[in-house]
Amino acid sequence: MIDFLIIGGGIAGLSAGARLSEHGSVTVLEAEDALGYHASGRSAALFEEGYGPPSVVALNKASAAFFFTNDYLTPRGLMLLAKSDQADQFRKDLSELGMAEISVADALVHVPVLNPESVAYAALSEGAYDIDTDRVLQDFARTIRANAGSVLTRQKVARIRKDGGHWLVEAAEVFPARKIVNAAGAWADEVARMAGIAPIGITPRRRSMARLPAPGGHDVKNWPMILGAGETWYAKPDAGKLLVSPSEADPVEPHDAYADDMVLAEGLARYEEMVTSPVTRVETNWAGLRSFAPDGTLVLGPDPSDESFVWSAGQGGYGFQTAPAASRLVADLALGRAPELDAAMVSALSVSRLR
Hints:
Number of strands: 20
Strand content: 25-35%
Low-confidence stretches: none
Structural class: alpha+beta
Helix content: 25-40%
Shape: elongated
């Protein structure tokens, strides 16, 4: 009998599994051929404490020590840009992100391809970091295995039922478990329905991405991530290239996502307007699904209708940067321990708020 069966081999499932593997037997089931195949493998991989709604920021802050202590972070920086007609949005973003305004001339020092005729406002934060997402995923998986747990791929769940007070989860084989942790990302509501648990209204939202050659032949490795006012686009250095996204959040059905060409073109145009180097070639493109609860924040903990069914869902675009604290909370609640987070935040992240 498995103590904790985790459905989903992305950052939510692996981090929760690693925490729980210290207290019981853990098996992680991933439907795809590889771990982190969907949202976790297509992340912007940025840690910024002030990014997200209040409950997310609380998780970010509680996760920071884990990332720094284990050397998962590399300084990146975050730059905010706005046009002259975006002054109000710029001020709003500036306040929410806690950034410092800088001159356009100073912004050009950091990113020399900016167009001073288009960029009217700029801000910079030094408190943004790249996350080594692959190492984080593999280290959590390694912890599970070191604690005699299993991490299995090609295990698409087909049926879930209760028998004699425990769960039977049918995938490539039948797995008996005392508790289920639903970390299925875009498929979280689907997993809940199979288990006879009411869904919580998870909405997968597509985000497209393009990889461009370094603009103007510049060395981009020390450039900050660049965010358009209102998060209407972003650009981020990656292995000598530049990733550009239209930052769309279009609702879709759960699927293996791919970029929408028209949406991608619109995002590239918004980026291109703010720089002097035209986009002449897209090397590759892709998309991921960021999955949101109705109120836009995470859903963590046992379902009130059956405490043996535990949610770790609704990560949206915050999965990696919240994972250390979110997984600790999931483990605390699944084990019946007092959480480290304060009661107000635990309530803000609970399933009960959506019932």
